[in-house]
């Protein structure tokens, strides 16, 4: 099973929201196992489980599924909305029911859709959100996109993501979140997603049993990428992850499995702002962080498992990835 990590700026922006409401954030970091001496280093990353823990604790403190950035959304609202949608026959009905739910639920940003012949546009009105860090907006976009993709069992390739604020310093992370770089400085208070209207007939492939599992992973699904092999990077990552259990496949082997030439594979990955070596480093980085946070193996054993010839080489790579030594990620050493 693959591991994933979340950039520290997501934690920072969530905790700034808490600080504005007088919440002491130090216990939140400690409870999530995020050492204070790495919490404010720009290259730090945390596991999805740590990010979920911070979010869950804020839910309890605010009794609000969006942490007080707008009119309160009581805990359990998301479950209510999803139960009203899970029996939809297809994506078009999912979109229609989602728009309808947003009109009757207090605190939920209004959602509306425009069904075009070739493109469908879904708009979220975030004008009422007190969201200077833009995190609530980003999470809503990710949640709508990932929820609808999960329902039909495939990632919905977005033709456009439009956000109503200037390009932030962490914009490079958006491609991984949405599968493309957003358009910034859109109309005030309006977030928009566009996708191919041909997908509207895609059937819903989930049921209430699946939904129970999905909801049990809240809020992890807000932060974890859920790929369905819909991009070249997804497929390459799936092949490369086997290297964590044995030999790392070379670019030629990956290209052969995908029935393309190595040159074409590299070109496709460049278009997605990544590369084979970049994806491999992300996999190694995330696996290393996950192990260190769990504290179940020594640094030397971890280096060997990840394929490094020497522990010193692993330590150098880890510092390059995160800006910190491996020991800084062990909560029990602080």
UniProtKB/TrEMBL annotation:
<dbReference type="GO" id="GO:0005829">
    <property type="term" value="C:cytosol"/>
</dbReference>
<dbReference type="InterPro" id="IPR032687">
    <property type="entry name" value="AraC-type_N"/>
</dbReference>
<dbReference type="Pfam" id="PF12625">
    <property type="entry name" value="Arabinose_bd"/>
</dbReference>
<dbReference type="Pfam" id="PF12833">
    <property type="entry name" value="HTH_18"/>
</dbReference>
<keyword id="KW-0238">DNA-binding</keyword>
<dbReference type="InterPro" id="IPR020449">
    <property type="entry name" value="Tscrpt_reg_AraC-type_HTH"/>
</dbReference>
<protein>
    <recommendedName>
        <fullName>HTH araC/xylS-type domain-containing protein</fullName>
    </recommendedName>
</protein>
<dbReference type="InterPro" id="IPR018060">
    <property type="entry name" value="HTH_AraC"/>
</dbReference>
<feature type="domain" description="HTH araC/xylS-type">
    <location>
        <begin position="234"/>
        <end position="332"/>
    </location>
</feature>
<dbReference type="InterPro" id="IPR009057">
    <property type="entry name" value="Homeodomain-like_sf"/>
</dbReference>
<keyword id="KW-0804">Transcription</keyword>
<keyword id="KW-0805">Transcription regulation</keyword>
<dbReference type="GO" id="GO:0000976">
    <property type="term" value="F:transcription cis-regulatory region binding"/>
</dbReference>
<dbReference type="GO" id="GO:0003700">
    <property type="term" value="F:DNA-binding transcription factor activity"/>
</dbReference>
């Amino acid at each position: 099973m693959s591991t994933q990590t979340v950039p520290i700026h997501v934690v920072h922006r969530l905790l700034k929201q808490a600080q504005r409401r007088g919440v002491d954030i130090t216990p939140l970091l400690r409870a999530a196992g995020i050492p204070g001496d790495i919490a404010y280093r720009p290259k730090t990353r945390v596991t999805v489980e740590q990010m979920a823990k911070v979010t869950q604790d804020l839910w309890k403190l605010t009794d609000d599924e969006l942490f007080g950035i707008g009119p309160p959304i009581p805990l359990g609202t998301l479950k209510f909305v999803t139960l009203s949608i899970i029996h939809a026959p297809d994506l078009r009905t999912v979109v229609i029911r989602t728009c309808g739910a947003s009109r009757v639920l207090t605190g939920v940003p209004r959602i509306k859709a425009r069904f075009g012949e070739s493109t469908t546009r879904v708009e979220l009105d975030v004008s009422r959100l007190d969201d200077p860090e833009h995190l609530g907006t980003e999470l809503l976009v990710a949640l709508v996109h990932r929820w609808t993709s999960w329902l039909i069992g495939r990632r919905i390739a977005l033709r456009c993501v439009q956000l109503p604020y200037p390009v932030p310093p962490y914009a490079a992370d958006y491609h991984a979140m949405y599968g493309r770089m957003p358009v910034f400085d859109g109309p005030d208070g309006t977030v928009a997603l566009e996708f191919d209207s041909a997908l509207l007939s895609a059937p819903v492939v989930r049921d209430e049993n699946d939904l129970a599992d999905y909801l049990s992973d809240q809020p992890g699904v807000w932060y974890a990428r859920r790929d369905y092999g819909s991009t070249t990077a997804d497929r390459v990552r799936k092949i490369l992850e086997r290297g964590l259990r044995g030999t790392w496949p070379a670019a030629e082997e990956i290209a052969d499995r995908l029935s393309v030439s190595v040159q074409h594979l590299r070109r496709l990955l460049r278009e997605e702002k990544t590369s084979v070596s970049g994806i491999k480093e992300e996999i190694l980085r995330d696996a290393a962080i996950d192990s260190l946070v769990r504290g179940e193996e020594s640094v030397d054993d971890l280096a060997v498992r990840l394929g490094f010839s020497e522990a010193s080489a692993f330590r150098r790579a880890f510092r390059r990835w995160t800006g910190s030594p491996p020991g800084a990620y062990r909560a029990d050493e602080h």
